[in-house]
Amino acid sequence: MKPMTEEHLAVLRRHMVEMIAIHAELASEELGKATLDERVMTAMRRMPRHLFVPAAVAAYAYQDMPLPIGFDKTVSQPFIVALMTDLLAPQPYEAVLEIGTGLGYQTAILAELAGQVWSVEIIEEFAGHAEALLQGLGFSNVGIRVGDGSRGWPEHAPFDKVLVSVAAERTPPALLKQLKPGGRLVLPLGSKNAQLLTVIDKDAAGQLETRQIIPVRFSQLETA
Fold first, then answer.
1. Is 117 within the bounds of a domain?
2. For the chain, which end, N or C, has fewer CB atoms within 10 Å of the first or last residue's CB respectively?
3. CA distance 126 to 41
C-alpha cells in the first residue's frame, strides 16, 4: 500500500475536527454551548497529530480516541484536547503552564494559541522527545523541563492560565499559588476511577470559583 500524502493527512484531520464538532454538539447541555472556539478548531485542523504518537499507532492518529505513547500513558482523545483548550481559552498575549507534556501534542496546540507555554513532564524520555519535535516544527515559544508537575514552575510564575493533563485527587496548592488573579486552571479532579474535568477561576481578589464539566479518565499525577 502507498504511504499517505500530506493531502490525505489533511483530509483525515478535517474529518477528525468534524467528529470533535459532533461530539461538542452532543455534549452541549454539559458544556453550556454547542460549538468550540474556532481558534481551537483551526489549531486542531493544522496540527499533525500523527507526529506526536509512536509509529506503531500513527495510522490511528486522526481517530477520536486516546492512543498509547509508552510508560502506561496515552495521548488524550482529540475531543478532550480540544475541549480542555477551549475551556482554558489561551490568548496570544498569555503565558500558560502545562503539567504533563507527554509527547507534546497538547503542548503544540497551546503553543499555537498562547504567547508562551511552559510545560513540566516527569518522564525524562517524553520531555526530550517532545522538546526535539516541537523545535523541529518551529515552535520557539515553548519551554519544557523534567520535574514534579505538582510543584509547577515557580521561576516563570505567575501564569495567566494553567492546564493539567493528568488527574489529581485535589488541586496542587502550588499551581493555585502560581496562577495569576484573573487566571484560570483546567484539570481533571478525582481518583483513578472517578474524575471530573474541572475549571477553576481565580478572581482579582484571589477567590476561587469551581465548575465541573464532564466525567473523564486520565492517568494520575505522579510526584517526585
1. yes
2. N
3. 25
In terms of residue numbers, what domain contains 137? 6-216
Looking at the 3D structure of the chain, how many domains does it have? 1
Enter the C-alpha cell of residue 98: 502545562
- What's this model's pTM, rounded to 2 decimal places? 0.94
Cα three-residue angle 198-52-197, rounded to 5 degrees: 5
> Would you state the cell numbers that stand for residue 73, as one nine-digit string?
500513558
Peptide bond preceding 90 in cis form (omega within 30 of 0): no
**10 is a domain residue:** yes
Grid coordinates belonging to 185: 486552571
pLDDT tens track for 186-220: 999 998 788 999 999 999 999 999 999 999 988 88
Which CATH number belongs to the domain containing residue 41 in this structure? 3.40.50.150
Would you call 45 helix, strand, or coil by DSSP? helix
**Who's near 29: CB < 8 A, 6+ residues apart?**
none
Catalytic residues: 76
Burial of 190 (0-12, 13-18, 19+ CB in 10 A): buried
Averaged confidence pLDDT in the chain: 94
Q: Which grid cell sits at 35?
A: 460549538
